[in-house]
Amino acid sequence: MEWTPTNPVCTNLFFCLVDRDQLDGNTDFTTAGAITMDQLAYYNKLADDSINAAEAQALAMVLDSEFFAVYFVKYATGVTHEQAVNAFGKALVNTEYTLTDLAGVVAKNYVFSS
């Protein structure tokens, strides 16, 4: 997946993360695709993995709710709520993932209208 302003997955994910104070409101969208998960506000470099995993899962549930409430998404064919949130949470805790990678996970589990 390419991080681009014409892809609703990228733009909606970006604005949800800004809205949830995970990214600074002054973050440049064009370079945000390279931001790694450990640069999001929820991530605590001093906490153990289980704490960050719990925080990531909670954030995944909040973002899932926001996707439905604000962007009227649907789950991809064959994907359940539990599967989508779990994939989202696992991606959020993967410190090697970038926002571009996260957008790819979101795109596999949710359908945004253009």
3D architecture notes:
It contains five helices and two strands; from the N terminus they run αααβααβ. By secondary structure, it is mainly alpha-helical. It has one domain (8-111). Helix 1 packs across helix 5 (99-109). The radius of gyration is 13 Å and the shape is globular. The mean pLDDT is 96.
What is the element layout, followed by pairings?
Elements: H1 8-19, H2 29-32, H3 49-71, E1 74-75, H4 81-93, H5 99-109, E2 110-111
Antiparallel strand pairs: 1-2
Helix pairs in contact: 1-3, 1-5, 3-4, 4-5
Brief account:
The chain has helices spanning 8-19, 29-32, 49-71, 81-93, 99-109; strands at 74-75, 110-111.
Oligomeric state of this protein:
single chain
Q: How many structurally independent domains?
A: 1
By DSSP (H or I, 4+ residues per run), the number of helices equals: 5
What's the total count of β strands? 2
Strand content: under 5%
What is the N-to-C order of secondary-structure elements (H for helix, E for strand)?
Answer: HHHEHHE
Overall 3D form: globular
| Mean pLDDT, all residues | 96
